[in-house]
């Protein structure tokens, strides 16, 4: 059984991101919100930053994007909105209905779906983003990297954010919690520093590109195996950032000219 097939079987475990603590935080644009391990360790989640406009570190990521862009785990949509404002063809995906709704309210096309489910334009995206810790999706970096390779065009670009200044390679079971003690169901998550991500990428056949830091955050660019000329962007209304988005449905974002 392939790693991607295994990962697709795990996709329902992403649903805790739709639990009330996360959804409530996105609706209000405020934390505090945390990922909590079984041993009590807490990772603060930067809800206020996610719900604000793209900052300087974000804009440096967006400057490096090529072709049509898929934002995996788009959250409240600041990157999707910023890319659309720059004329990029872009689609955000997220398992959280609150995240997709907030992205749509910003005018960004978004789809409520796991990265391990069928997606528009598979194999034709110029750039995919795993920002704000989303390299941890599914708790299995190798399966996630394999899936990202399926989504990108030959020679496509993957930009991932890593844990700063640490050679960390951690797979844990976590749940979302807030300051009042509300919790979601447990789900697998991963945390990777740049060295660990590069090791996984090398084994999976990715080509390492640039590395940089900005605003206290760390980023890595990877190339999919083939370096052939860039493909045409996906021919789908779902990625037309110039179109005004109405209310996204569970199956596809709806756009009108």
Automatic annotation (TrEMBL):
Which GO MF terms are attached to this record?
methyltransferase activity
Entries under InterPro entries matching the protein: SAM-dependent_MTases_sf
A Gene Ontology biological process term: methylation
CDD domains per UniProt: AdoMet_MTases
Q: Where is the composition biased (Polar residues)?
A: 224-243
Enumerate the SUPFAM superfamilies for this protein.
S-adenosyl-L-methionine-dependent methyltransferases
User: What keywords appear on the UniProt entry?
Assistant: Methyltransferase, Transferase
Show the segment(s) annotated as Disordered. 223-257
Comp. bias intervals (Basic and acidic residues): 248-257
Protein name (Swiss-Prot/TrEMBL): Class I SAM-dependent methyltransferase
Q: Which organism is it from?
A: Streptomyces plumbiresistens
């Amino acid at each position: 059984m392939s790693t991607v097939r295994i990962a697709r079987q795990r996709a329902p475990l992403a649903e805790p991101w739709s639990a009330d603590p996360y959804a409530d935080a996105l609706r209000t644009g405020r934390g505090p919100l945390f990922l909590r391990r079984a041993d009590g360790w807490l990772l603060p989640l930067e809800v206020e930053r996610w719900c604000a406009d793209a900052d300087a570190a974000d804009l440096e990521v967006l400057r490096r994007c090529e072709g049509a862009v898929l934002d995996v785990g788009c959250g409240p949509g600041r990157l999707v909105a910023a890319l659309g404002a720059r004329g990029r063809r872009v689609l955000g995906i997220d398992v959280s209905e609150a995240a997709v709704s907030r992205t749509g309210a910003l005018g960004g096309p978004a789809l409520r779906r796991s990265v391990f489910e069928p997606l528009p334009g598979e194999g034709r995206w110029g750039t995919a983003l795993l920002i704000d810790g989303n390299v941890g999706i599914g708790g299995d970096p190798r399966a996630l990297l394999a899936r990202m390779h399926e989504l990108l065009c030959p020679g496509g670009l993957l930009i991932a954010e890593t844990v700063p200044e640490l050679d960390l390679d951690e797979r844990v079971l976590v749940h979302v919690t807030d300051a009042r003690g509300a919790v979601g169901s447990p789900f697998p998550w991963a945390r990777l520093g740049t060295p660990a991500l590069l090791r996984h990428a090398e084994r999976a056949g990715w080509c390492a590109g640039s590395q940089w830091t900005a605003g206290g955050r760390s980023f890595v660019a990877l190339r999919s195996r083939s370096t052939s000329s860039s493909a045409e962007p996906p021919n789908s209304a779902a990625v037309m950032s110039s179109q005004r988005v109405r209310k996204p449905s569970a199956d596809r974002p709806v756009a009108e000219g």
